[in-house]
Predict the structure.
Amino acid sequence: MRIVRTALLLTAAVACFAQDLRVGIIGLDTSHAVRFAELLNDPARKDHVSGAVIVAAYKGGSPTVADSANRIDRFTEEVTTKYHVKLTASIVELVQQVDAVMLLSVDGRQHLEQASPVFAAKKRVFIDKPLAGSLTDAREIANLSRQAGVPFFSCSSERYAKTLQDLKHDSSIGRIEGAFTFGPSPIETYLPDLFWYGIHSVESLYELMGPGCERVARVHTDGEDSVVGTWKDGRIGEIRGLRSSPRQYGAVVFGAKKIAVSGTPDGSYRPIVQEIVKFFQTGEPPVTPEESLEVLAFMEAADRSKERGGAPVALERIK
């Protein structure tokens, strides 16, 4: 009886997956590969996300980056054995087997090279944070997208944390006149300072404030960063990057009617995976390429401000 029941469940799962978009992963050196696979490929989970299934992956990896080299084999084993994802020998082979792509490689410097064959194959792509290892590379990704007529979507999972979304959509706050976000900000030498983890707080700030930052000023110490952006309409947004404080994310919104503080995020990846699947289905990115480029310009301007002892740097001067 148990064998029959198991066979029926598997048949139902296969039938369900037959209607799903086939998704490929580039880069198995991040925990996101495992977390996204469990949400999409395990229909028995209460938090299962329907509409897509991961069927293939290109392992990738960056031997000179410890967080890639030290974890890629473990993540690859879990994704391929537990979630039955097939490995491919190349990205070109991968894109021939899928309808859409998640580019998850932990080393943002690889993203431009890895995204190129995806655009060439006319496949929609989600590019995990950071969009690229530099603003210059990010602009080239946007150019490739336009030339191919293929949309892309890039952001941090923190944009869609329920606690942040509750703040953004709380009508009792009134118009958002300013915001303050905070989170961990360890620094990796191969990327601009905020590209590694500080980007989560920057993305959260942009989710609350929207694009339109004009200039950025940064105060940097070994333990903390304070980065203040002045928007073109006079509003002020600030992030605090934490290195000596507990590893915690949060936000404060200064509204026209009241000030509100977020709760602690639950760490669920379900909201971002839902947004990715919706993007694959519709081709409409919830974060525009222009905003994604501005996020990177904000972070590079913060580095320039640090070099200049905290002097403000205009985003339009970031080349």
User: Anything to note?
Assistant: Residues 2-157 form a domain with the Rossmann fold fold (CATH 3.40.50.720). The chain has two domains: 2-157, 158-317. Residues 1-17 have pLDDT under 50 and may be disordered.
